[in-house]
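A reminder from the course coordinator: this example appears on the midterm review sheet, so study it carefully.

Given structure:
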């Protein structure tokens, strides 16, 4: 048995495995699915030659997270492509809010609310690495920059309160911000959602919301290649059913939901801890629909055709009403839809002249309903003629999300409801959220801080603690990655 076993091959598990291998430990990754990668996989879901991202499609953190900055995806052969417009937010009447990578271009487009947008984001953009470090911390470590924490916190409190409309005069800018906040699948004015909007909104004007050439699978592929180079092993099609299988490992990192960890560890855990994990809440869910199209989506709003990601929901008020219904376990006639059109930068995703089109709609947790008709209608609302382009589609209702990723309980792609309590205390109130009552077992999934997203940070934080407590290795994981990169370059 290896020194370190990682259960689950999502970005967080692979990040932890890379760090452990960089420390000179023997590493084995066990993945239940036949295809590794967790929420960052790519497959031909509709027609031959159409390559669809199964879950994550655009990656604001791929160039920004401390883990990926140290790992350096480009140096490992990942071609990350940045659309000119990070995201667009169409509204009725043929207009759209456009988040250009260039902040000043965005400000100019927003007219009356341009100055408010600049005031909100320019101070965060100027110190974006500190903003990322703050948001991607273990939420236990004091911030390295108090001025950054203050600037971020003041905006967080404003947009998370009844004052959130105070800076704006029109409808476009507040709709844009709310569209990003709704990524959290919770009330857009909730503090965790606003925090996500400020972070992702900042990155939209820094490196952009990048799309890997060939598909999101390129990211785990790069991580797996590095694990292999360092002597690690990845085993697919291996579902762990009992902790006894892992007893010989000196440390086990679980890139799993609390529900999966409970299933595997079972009665070995103290009753109080088991009950606390059982109380962990899973939130609103997603119904994913992938389309093979005969050509580009015919957006009415100028500029939308340049955006990698689009938020289809309408005004700020509409988004609030939709997310309120989802939180109440109800469906929305006009759901919040995230759409990604990778073809704006990546011509490898579909045959010449054709397009892949990625969508998901927010739905109640555990839903078995196919909402593809509602998604098509919401796209058609902003792009008349869309339905005529559909060559094929692939639908994954929320209840079937766990079939390809057990961490998405009931279709919750955030791996746990993004409430204020469950953002600060994921998966439960402990000073060290990565440790467990089993001395060799650690949690490293998106159900731990800092939460969901393809950024590898739960894996980094868990690996740091694991190295110190189990192996007495106190070297910073980011330095370990730098050393490994230097070794790779020499080779």
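Designed residues:
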């Amino acid at each position: 048995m290896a020194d370190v076993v990682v259960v689950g091959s999502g970005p967080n598990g692979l990040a932890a495995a890379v760090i452990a291998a960089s420390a000179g430990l023997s590493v084995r990754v066990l993945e239940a699915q036949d295809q590794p990668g967790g929420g960052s996989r790519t497959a031909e879901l509709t027609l031959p030659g159409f390559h669809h991202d199964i879950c994550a499609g655009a990656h604001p953190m791929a160039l920004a997270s401390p883990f990926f900055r140290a790992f350096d995806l480009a140096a490992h052969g990942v071609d990350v492509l940045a659309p000119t417009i990070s995201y667009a937010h169409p509204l009725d009447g043929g207009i759209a809010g456009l988040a250009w990578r260039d902040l000043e271009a965005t400000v100019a487009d927003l007219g009356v609310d341009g100055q408010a947008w600049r005031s909100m984001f320019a101070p965060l953009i100027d110190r974006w690495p500190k903003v990322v470090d703050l948001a991607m911390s273990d939420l236990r470590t004091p911030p390295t920059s108090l001025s950054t924490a203050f600037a971020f916190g003041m905006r967080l409190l404003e947009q998370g309160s009844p004052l959130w409309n105070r800076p704006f005069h029109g409808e476009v800018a507040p709709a844009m911000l709310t569209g990003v906040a709704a990524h959290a699948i919770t009330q857009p004015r909730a503090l965790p959602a606003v925090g996500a909007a400020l972070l992702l909104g900042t990155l939209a004007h820094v490196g952009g919301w990048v799309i890997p050439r060939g598909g999101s699978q390129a990211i785990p592929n790069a991580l797996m290649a590095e694990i292999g180079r360092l002597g690690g092993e990845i085993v697919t099609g291996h579902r762990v059913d009992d902790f006894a299988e892992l007893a010989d490992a000196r440390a086990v990192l679980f890139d799993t939901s609390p529900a999966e960890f409970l299933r595997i560890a079972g009665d070995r855990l103290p009753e109080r801890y088991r009950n606390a994990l059982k109380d962990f809440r899973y939130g609103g869910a997603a119904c994913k629909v992938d389309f093979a199209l005969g050509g580009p989506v015919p957006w009415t709003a100028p500029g939308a055709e340049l955006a990698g990601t689009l938020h289809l929901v309408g005004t700020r008020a509409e988004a609030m009403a939709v997310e309120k219904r989802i939180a109440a376990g109800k469906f929305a006639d006009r759901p919040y839809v995230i759409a990604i059109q990778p073809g704006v930068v990546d011509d490898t995703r579909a045959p010449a002249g054709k397009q892949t089109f990625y969508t998901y709609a927010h739905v109640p947790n555990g839903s078995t309903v196919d909402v593809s008709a509602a998604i098509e209608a919401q796209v058609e609302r902003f792009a008349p003629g869309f339905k005529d382009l559909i060559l094929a589609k692939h639908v994954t209702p929320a209840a079937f999300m766990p079939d390809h990723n057990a961490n998405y309980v009931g279709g919750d792609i955030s791996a746990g409801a993004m409430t204020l309590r469950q953002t600060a205390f994921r998966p439960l109130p402990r000073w060290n959220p990565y440790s467990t009552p089993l001395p060799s077992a650690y949690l490293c999934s998106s159900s731990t801080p800092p939460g969901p997203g393809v950024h590898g940070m739960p894996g980094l934080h868990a690996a740091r603690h694991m190295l110190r407590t189990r192996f007495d290795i106190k070297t910073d994981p980011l330095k370990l990655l730098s050393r490994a990169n230097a070794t790779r370059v020499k080779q």
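The chain has 16 helices and 16 strands. Residues 457-471 form the longest helix (15 residues).
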